[in-house]
Amino acid sequence: MSILINNNTKLIVQGITGREGTFHARLMKKYGTNVVAGVTPGKAGTYVDDIPVFDTVLEAKIESGANTSILFVPPRFTRDAIIEACEAGIELIVTIAEGVPLQDMLYCTNYCKKSNSILVGPNTPGIISPGKAKVGFMADMIYSEGSIGIMSRSATLSYETANNLTNEGIGQSTVVGVGGDPICGSTFQDLLPFFEQDEQTKAIIIIGEIGGNNEEIAAEYARKNISKPLVAFIAGEAAPEGKRMGHAGAIVSPGGAGGARNKKENLKANGVTVVEKLTDIPDAVSTILNKIGD
Amino acid sequence: MKFYEYNAREIFNLEGIVTSEGKVAVSPSEVFEIAKDMNAPVVLKSQVLTGGRGKAGGIKFANNPEEAQKFASELFSKKIKGYPVTKILVSDKVDIKKEYYLGITINFQNRKTSLIFSTEGGVDIEELAEKNPEKIIKIDIDPVIGLQNYHLTPLARALGYDKEVFNQLKIICKKLYLIYEKYDCLLVEINPLALIEEEGIRKLIAIDAKLESDDNANYRQSTLTEMWDEKTEEKIELIGKSAGFVTIKLNGVVSIVSNGAGNAIYALDLLKKYNISTANILDLSGGATPEKVQKAVNVVIQDEDVKVILFNVFGGITRCDEIAKGIVQSVQSIPSNIPVVCRLQGTNREKGIKILNDAGFQAFMYLEDAIKKIVELIDKQGDVK
């Protein structure tokens, strides 16, 4: 059935009349996503193709019955747009912006938790459940429907992984970009229970990187609570300490905390299959699928 | 952005947190003048963006202006943990009865705000956390709720319910929390927060001040951005920043230009597996135009360490043909002794590869093949890897 998004997704695009918003609203629709409305304050009554535009999320939701929203909104307006969606009762909010102030995300993350809205992002390409729906801006031709769940901090490395799997004939259930920022609405750990419950998903891939300890927390949680096998790759082995490596969240603390080596050791100790190269993932996944008889 | 102590003090004072007196000097003679004006024993504090400067010899006590000047010359010629000393804060030497630690930071683990307090101030807090974790009080605050009085009850207990001190501490906590939010901080810290006695009255004052803010919020933090000393960044990183890119300077020979931080880091890792070092990383981020690619090339070739440029592109929102056009248009500006190696994958790959091939460039589909090509080129150049 995939996780988070599927054939029942009814999507609002916040910021639909902007250049990226319009462009990707069309692509998401073309992929088969049910894009039911757009929101841009001041543009109520207009249309993007046949998608009606509303002034507010609440109005859009009442008219369209939307349950999901994606934000093509600049960083400085992201906080407001997330809270608006949350207050309107949107169940899943995907925010792609890169460079949102961390205190804004800290606030939104906690706010959404209290309201039972699921927040994904920021700094993510979005979510795709191949063959069903895409809520994001990824190039959809590299994905294929299947049984592997993917979560990734990096957009480009999630593309690499999906592409490599598809080329080997291994499809994906849902691919989620958790985002490259140090504060993200949904962490690896937050998403694991969804994959666990999803019948379509047989194995889960984590594409992590240096910085923080989200991978370790997820691995420890998985050891106790998740029955499905996990495969992980950690980027940033060659990164020096104390240098922020492009993603705001990718930094190794002096002393090696958050470093690739520590992470890999920790993940292995928690029973995760850790691969050294991204290109090793299809083999590792095939082996696991064979073992569990899929 | 990390700030010097004297900058952080300015913000703290502005928001009503009392610090010890202090003035900044950039030369030994200025130190002499300030010490003379203060007419009392002084503390000389090297202004460097690193912790543990006391242990590293960056703090000196002087009894008179002459001594202050002599110590200052020593400090100015010194490096503290690799950082040159260009400014010294001359501060009055206060008679401290007791030292506390107080800090507020984003807790990335549980996505809350953490207020941290200890009655054992003046020491390295991370060391203390390891050796005597029971001496540290950590209070997690939900940013939606904000700092409330009840959060601080454990601090009162730690002070033995000393009302006079706790009431002052409470006010400082609230002011510090306000600074943390108002200035988009990742960290604000007072270590030590000192208890002093003046004419029989006990007072809490900040002896040190630390502030690190969030770059993402710079657009709404003009007070901080005006204060910030950009000389603390690498030259090539600044050139990149002014061209609109995140650029990271490293020690090596290959420049990695990518359409995302993730595949830049991965290229860095793979290069290392082939024993090749990286000079810099430049992230085009999503949706780069040919003009943007040209701009990026103009940044990375200004790094004198660069011997090879590697384009590692996996297009999603980014289109390979746009990248290829940009590369071809940049040819004239790239010195002939710097070869360009391209890896194109994803959106419009075929078109991109054709554009490159027509211009005489090779394009690889797999990153590892591109890296093998670099190995070959560097072997030919005979340079150190």
Short description:
The complex is a heterodimer of chains A (294) and B (385). Chain A is α/β, with parallel strands linked by helices and 294 residues long.
General description of the model:
The complex is a heterodimer of chains A (294) and B (385). Chain A has 294 residues and is an alpha/beta fold. Chain A is built from nine helices and 14 strands. In chain A, helix 3 runs parallel beside helix 4 and helix 6 runs parallel beside helix 7. Chain A is globular and about 55 Å long. Chain A starts with 9 loop residues before the first strand and ends with a helix. The model of chain A has no long low-confidence stretch (mean pLDDT 94). By secondary structure, chain B is of the alpha+beta class. Chain B has three domains: 71 residues, Dna Ligase, domain 1 (2-Layer Sandwich), CATH 3.30.1490; 130 residues, ATP-grasp fold, B domain (D-amino Acid Aminotransferase, Chain A, domain 1), CATH 3.30.470.20; 149 residues, Rossmann fold (3-Layer(aba) Sandwich). Chain B is 36% helix and 27% strand. In chain B, strands 7, 8, 9, 10, 11 and 12 form a six-stranded antiparallel sheet that branches. In chain B, strands 13-15-14-16-17-18 form a six-stranded mixed sheet, sandwiched between helices. In chain B, strands 1-6-2-3 form a four-stranded antiparallel sheet, with helices on one face. In chain B, strand 7 and strand 8 form a beta hairpin. In chain B, helix 2 packs antiparallel against helix 3, helix 10 packs across helix 11 and helix 11 runs parallel beside helix 12. The longest helix of chain B has 20 residues. Chain B is elongated, with a radius of gyration of 26 Å. Chain B starts with a helix and ends with a helix. Classes of the chains: A alpha/beta (294), B alpha+beta (385). Chains A and B meet through helix 4 and helix 5 of A and helix 9 and strand 15 of B.
